[in-house]
Amino acid sequence: MVSLNTPTAAPPGAPAGAAPAGRRPALRRDGRYAGLFLAPSLAGLALFTLFPTVMALGISLFDWPVFGERTFLGIDNYTHLLNDPVFRRVVLNTALFVVLYVPLNVVVSLGLAVWLGPKIRGRQAFRVLFFIPVMTPMVANVMVWRLLFQPGGLIDTGMQSWFGVDAPNFLGSSSWAMPAIVAMSIWQGFGYNFLVFSAALDQVPQSQLESAQIDGAGPLQRFRYVTWPMITPSIFFATTMTLITSFQVFAQPFILTQGGPGVSTQTIVMYVYNQGWQFLTMGLASAAGWVLFVIIMGITAIQFVGQKRWVHYDV
Amino acid sequence: MTYRGTPDTNAVGRRVRSGVSHVLLIAVALLFLGPLVYAVSTSLKPADEVFTPTPELFGSEIRWQNYADAFTFAPFGRYFVNSLFVAVVGTLVVVVASSMSAYAFARLKFRGREQLFVLFLGTLMVPQEVLIVPMYWLMQSLGWVDSYWALILPWAFTAFGTFLLRQFFLTVPAELEEAARVDGCGPIRSFLRIMLPLARPAIAVLTVFTFISFWGSFLWPLIIVNSVADKGTVPLGLAQFIGQQGTQWNLMMAASVLAMLPTVLLVVLLQKHLVRGLLVTGLGGR
Hints:
The complex is a heterodimer.
Chain A: H1 14-59, E1 62-63, E2 71-72, H2 76-83, H3 85-116, H4 123-135, H5 138-149, H6 154-163, H7 177-202, H8 206-214, H9 219-247, H10 251-256, H11 268-278, H12 282-310
Antiparallel strand pairs in A: 1-2
Helix pairs in contact in A: 2-12, 3-7, 3-9, 4-7, 7-9, 8-9, 9-12, 11-12
Chain B: H1 7-43, H2 65-73, H3 76-107, H4 113-123, H5 128-142, H6 148-152, H7 159-171, H8 174-182, H9 187-198, H10 200-216, H11 219-224, H12 228-231, H13 234-240, H14 249-269, H15 271-281
């Protein structure tokens, strides 16, 4: 292709004829350049993602203290986890968080997105407002809520002055701590799904809603039969992403309750952290991390299999 | 047609409903803002007025001094510099590495391209929690524990950026580049001179999301930083407050507000781009 350095002189038909001849050497050249362009990412991902993923599985088969002798254990770390009442409790706590958080998050964000509809003025302001805590540092958000939930904090004093009753000690009570963590997390996280849903609702053609209305469909029927089928891909996407991230919950319980009272709000990731960096048993920590990974993959797979029943990509 | 009432009363009804709807929405927005307002309000109160018998928006004075005091109470100056350094360098690495690989996947033809791309996307599935144990061991082996390297490099190669920019590069008409190539312009020059300048909006989105995720990251710094006073980042510094006897809540809130400020500004200023970028990729957040 080097000879074609005066393209302005070439007639309009020439490039079309020249292209096939030039494609083959270009392809070979491309291969060399591809290596160059891919090198940083490929090296980085191999060293910092692929290798550690496999290594994590390896470490989980050892008694692997941070310092000192390592001994091969086989699957002992995994059987230890199965029989550890703390780990079982931690899995249940995480499941409880997910079961409370995901549906509430979707209902709140979808409800608000539908309510705000495409016609309301100042919609962009709401989008930005709700999105703020999604982006601000999680630790800062949680700190604010720690003060909010504190005896003598805003919720407590508010209830005292308006209803004359003390608020429960949210973070110190085993029945209130988890709902408190869920409430905080909803406040922090729903803005993302709100954005996804309101963008999806914008795509529903107004004309179809109007013709359904003319045919006598009420608001609920219009939502069920016109809007819903069109937004199911977004709902699928949002629930899947929210499910994945909610299994990884860490900073909220870590800062609000330190997993307490007792271990009633300790989550799987907190367990990984504690095993690894409090008790310095890396093998067990790694095994717990892999259990989490398998749970997440399983749930995602179930979501993908289940979507055929209710997600419509063809409308 | 099922008109309820004449068109006239229908319109009135609609206006009333929309009025009520607006009032309720503003109430929801205020409720949502409550925690943020509370944080700012507390950050400006004297220490002994944080806990009052009734909710008070203002204390007996507006103490801006709290913001300065937060920096002397704990080394927040150091935390902010560390966080800024880690986030800026990390973002740079992410943008350079992902724009290069994105270009390869979008524009260069090589054997195994599709399979390699699927492998790239596959790495997105691995949660950070699986990686932290071997990553810590890797950092130990490299002698990087408690270093800036360890804060930056392990998370600076993500398929997310590659995916986002590839999606953008695919929308650039191929003719633009072909013309340049006919001119004797190789892939490197065409990448630098044509694609990168065109991709500025997508790069901006990636920059902001990456910066924000470095800025807010907590679990990894918590693990890898031993000398918090020296290598600590802002979230670590904030978390240091917990469990201390007699937490200085007003200073604490001042520091939290300062930690939120850069991200709030970015979101408000770049709202349109961020929303688009987020929806194009369907990722972001944490």
